[in-house]
Amino acid sequence: MHKRWMTGGVAALMAMVAVAPGTIRAAADEGQAAAPAQAAPADDALIKKAHAIHDKVIALDTHNDISPTNFTAEVNYTQRLGTQVNLPKMVEGGLDASFFIVYVGQGPLTPEGYDAAYKEAVAKFDAVHRLTEQIAPDKIQLALTGADVRRINAAGKKVALIGVENGYPLGDNEEVALKRVKEFYDRGARYMSLAHNGHSQLSDSNTGEREGWKWNGLSPLGKKVIAEMNRVGIMIDVSHPSKASMMQAVELSKAPIIASHSGVRALADVSRNMDDEQLLALKKNGGVIQVVAFNSYVKTDSPERKQALEALAKEFGLPPGTQLGGRGGGRGGRAGADGAAAAGAPAAAPGAGAAAPGGAPAAAGGRQGGGRANPLAQLSPEKQAELQTRLTALNEKFPAPARATVKDFVNHIDYAVKKIGIEHVGISSDFDGGGGIDGWNGADETFNVTLELVRRGYTEEQIGKMWSGNLLRVMDEVQKLAGKPAKS
């Protein structure tokens, strides 16, 4: 099949505090036309070669967040929304397949917390099914196997898959939790992580590096969930859990695992990225790291700036992990059909959900606190103004690094390929969940990644492996070990 797409999209850039010193609001609303990303000089032959390769491979992004509010009859992904991912933008950039994410932020480990998390998860499962079965079945279909991905792509349609970010909705009752693993598989989930930011009932989170540990890895129930995921055929995702949890998962799992959206820690020292020991363990396991184009995981602040930002957040009573210097899109997409975020919605942390009328943060889709309000929105107007003034001074004293580019991103890919081999490396964005870099800030700019890979000398076969081949191999192996049929 031949893709119908364009390059040099008009993805809007969220200019956050680290880009525009002295402000905690977006400098440009999502959905507004921005200047097209300028690719590095390349001769016509190189661009033509990259186009030919991009046309042939299946470009699959393993992590794109969603909000059910963008999956209705009135507002949906057939429209060119302000979200970083939707069908028109997938067509423009030649993005063939997307894992849409059933994300639930970590909340209290209580019966009420588990019940609310489960309902939020089901709403997101239902949203993806609504898109593929009712809203646009002629344009996009849900894939449950690797064979489905290849068949749907060959038919000229876009491919939807489902991943679950955080096992929190499973609950802490063993019988119920294990039944829900199978239920989530039946609803279409093909990968799941056991934690997000904050420890779950199943696993420690990477955030324990600054907050302390709860389980020292996996909990007893988490270990049983690993076994059940192997049994039913769900890939184990280790991007958000702690290093100890990841290493234990490698030892326990009978199937290859994935890191659905992580970077290389040797190049950007943040707890969400994987160090060399983890990368080598992933290689031994046969798994794949889907290198993520998330600005602050590709390039990091100086130690002095990090310390100053953390101290400022603490002074203003903001929870650990509040990103005062974050950039990128919002989790699940901030914008509706008009392509612009509602006025007055705080935009200081990536992942603030869609804005409700009057500028209040919407309950659904928020990155921090499992859909609860953006922490910065809880500050009074006076405190927000004071914080803005303090941030101006901080940015002058400790300037933020320039925003990451596609070249910076592919440096992470190069490192991983050299360390563990090309068979264990893939590509992801975390679009609509905080992801995005200059040159790949939306599905409409996907070609720019392929162009940079061609510029660095990767072949069509190698690029095909990284865009989808390696991930589909793991998906096929996980389902084969579970005794699932390979054919759709």
What does this entry look like structurally?
- The chain has helices at about 45-55, 85-95, 110-135, 145-155, 175-185, 210, 220-230, 245-250, 275-285, 295-300, 305-315, 380-395, 405-420, 445-455, 460-480; strands at about 60-65, 95-105, 140, 160-165, 190-195, 235, 260, 290, 425-430.
- α4 (about 145-155) links the parallel β3 (about 140) and β4 (about 160-165).
- The model is unreliable at about 5-35, about 325-330 and about 335-375 (pLDDT under 50).
- It has a domain at about 55-305 and about 405-480: Metal-dependent hydrolases (TIM Barrel).
- It is built from 15 helices and 9 strands.
- Strands 1, 2, 3, 4, 5 and 6 form a 6-stranded parallel β-sheet that branches. A 3-stranded parallel β-sheet has the order 7-8-9.
- The chain has about 500 residues and is an alpha/beta fold.
- The longest helix has 25 residues, at about 110-135.
- About 40% of the residues lie in helices and about 10% in strands.
Tags for this entry?
488 residues, alpha/beta, TIM Barrel, three-stranded parallel sheet, 9 strands, globular
The CATH topology of the domain at 57-307 and 405-481 turns out to be: TIM Barrel
The helix/strand series, from N terminus to C terminus, equals HEHEHEHEHEHHEHEHEHHHHEHH
CATH architecture of the domain at 57-307 and 405-481: Alpha-Beta Barrel
Assembly type of the shown chains?
A: single chain
Write down the CATH class of the domain at 57-307 and 405-481: Alpha Beta
How many angstroms does the end-to-end distance come to?
19 Å
Computed CA radius of gyration, to the nearest angstrom: 21 Å
Provide the residue-averaged pLDDT: 85
Structural class call reads alpha/beta
Number of helices: 15
* Shape verdict: globular
**Largest sheet, described in full?**
6 strands, parallel
Number of strands: 9
Low-confidence stretches: 4-37, 326-331, 333-373
Strand composition percent: 5-15%
* Helical amount: 25-40%
CATH homologous superfamily annotation of the domain at 57-307 and 405-481: Metal-dependent hydrolases
